[in-house]
Specification:
single chain; about 425 residues; alpha/beta; Glycerol-3-phosphate (1)-acyltransferase; 16 helices; about 60% helix
Length: about 425
């Protein structure tokens, strides 16, 4: 999972980590917006590999099924896939036993992954597992809602926000004696889980509204005095703006549209207006990249022939996928198969003896990680150079954008102030 997280993510921000219970049976429930990336992000955030619950169709995929079984995934039959659901007795029993051992079990209660900017109605599986575990002898069961938000699912190495919600104490939510066959208790607990999860997950009616309010939140939170803000601040404000009166939302969308139109026409970005590229910072980045290249360049060059073809396979496979929700999954699955295969082949074909082979495998892996790091830094430097050039050429046009940007901030402040009163 560690290599998968490095391949897929450049930054994982966790908000509310102190809410994660310790030494308790925990059933994690999370929204499912980014395919196989979601369990990777959850594992990184929890610092623990939970027993994930997944659809049994994944078990039939040769390489994927083997890997998922190896990491302890529990497979269930879904009615939507043609299963009766009657074959899940053993799977649920396995979850109950894990919770009795005070382990962590994780489920995506929507039942499937998707690209919509809000959660689908959740299924009853999480409630039935929690109630069944208590009936089987698990004590002190906690249901932990976790919201996952991705600023850009298509980017090669995106960032992610993990928001830990308020833990749901099963014994406080549902009276003792209610089991998984108590339909009223199951539906009541499902409603509690749904509410807790929606409070910390993206919840917008359509993608246009989601993008507009996200941009408005980012603009309103960014200033010369406060150039950086957390993803948690940004998405908390965006979700809040999604709850204000319709006329406020329309005003925000109108001002964001004006500002975006001017920036696009002038070939500038909001960062150019608030935080222009500093020549000293640019020179420092160039020197840093040059120093790192001198240190790691040899390792990357030495292992290039080993790592270039799996990297190529990942890029080709990703380009063939059209749906944003499956791009990250495709990259991880192909990468988890292609890269280790390349390293093992290099070790077996390029060395003799256990220790030389192991050393060559580890060197190839280190070269891949160094290459990812260098490419990321080089891309950031290239972007910085392009922005610096644009700022120098268009410095006289910045004053045209500042009043329009101020109108966006004013619209957001007006909406927040009215809601607060």
């Amino acid at each position: 999972m560690r290599f998968a997280s490095i391949m897929a993510l450049s930054r994982v921000e966790v908000a509310g980590r102190s809410r994660i219970p310790a030494d308790r049976p925990v059933l994690v429930v999370a929204n499912h917006f980014n395919g196989f990336i979601d369990p990777v992000v959850l594992t990184v955030a929890l610092r623990h590999l939970p027993r994930f619950i997944a659809k049994d169709s994944l078990a039939k995929l040769p390489a994927v099924g083997f890997f998922l079984r190896w990491v302890g995934v529990v497979f269930v039959h879904r009615r939507v896939d043609g299963g009766s659901g009657q074959g899940n007795t053993d799977a649920f029993r396995e979850c109950h036993q894990a919770l009795r051992r005070a382990d962590v079990v994780a489920i995506f209660p929507e039942g499937t992954t998707h690209d919509r900017p809000r959660m689908d109605p959740i299924k009853t599986g999480a409630a039935r597992i929690a109630l069944g575990a208590r009936a089987a002898g698990a004590t002190g069961v906690v249901i932990l809602p976790i919201g996952l938000t991705f600023p850009d699912k298509i980017a090669l190495r995106s960032s992610a926000l993990v928001q830990i919600g308020v833990p749901i104490e099963l014994d406080d939510a549902i009276a003792a004696g209610s089991g998984s066959d108590d339909q009223e208790a199951v539906h009541h607990l499902t409603a509690i889980i749904d509410a807790g999860l929606r409070d910390i997950s993206p919840n917008f009616p359509d993608i246009e509204t989601a993008l507009a309010l996200d941009q408005a939140a980012r603009i309103a939170l960014t200033s010369l005095d406060h150039p950086n803000h957390s993803l948690a601040e940004r998405y908390a404000l965006a979700r809040h703006l999604g709850t204000v009166a319709e006329h406020h939302q329309q005003a925000i969308r109108r001002e964001v549209g004006r500002y975006t139109t001017i920036l696009t026409g002038l070939a500038l970005s909001d960062e150019d207006i608030i935080r222009p590229t500093n020549p000293t910072r640019l020179l420092r980045s160039i020197i840093t990249i040059a120093a790192i290249l001198a240190l790691l360049g040899g390792l990357v060059a030495t292992t290039a022939m080993v790592n270039v073809w799996p990297a190529g396979l990942v890029m080709i496979a990703s380009s063939l996928v059209k749906s944003p929700v499956t791009k990250g999954t495709t990259r991880i699955v192909v990468g988890l198969v292609a890269f280790p295969t390349a390293w093992i082949l290099a070790g077996v074909l390029g060395a003799d003896g256990f220790f030389p082979i192991t050393l060559l495998i580890l060197t190839s892996a280190a070269g891949a990680l160094a290459a990812i790091w260098l490419v990321e830094r080089a891309m950031a430097l290239t972007h910085m150079l392009a922005r610096w050039r644009a700022q120098r050429e268009r410095i006289g046009t910045v004053e045209w954008t500042e009043p329009v940007r101020a109108d966006v901030v004013t619209a957001v402040s007006a909406a927040s102030s009215e809601c607060a009163t």
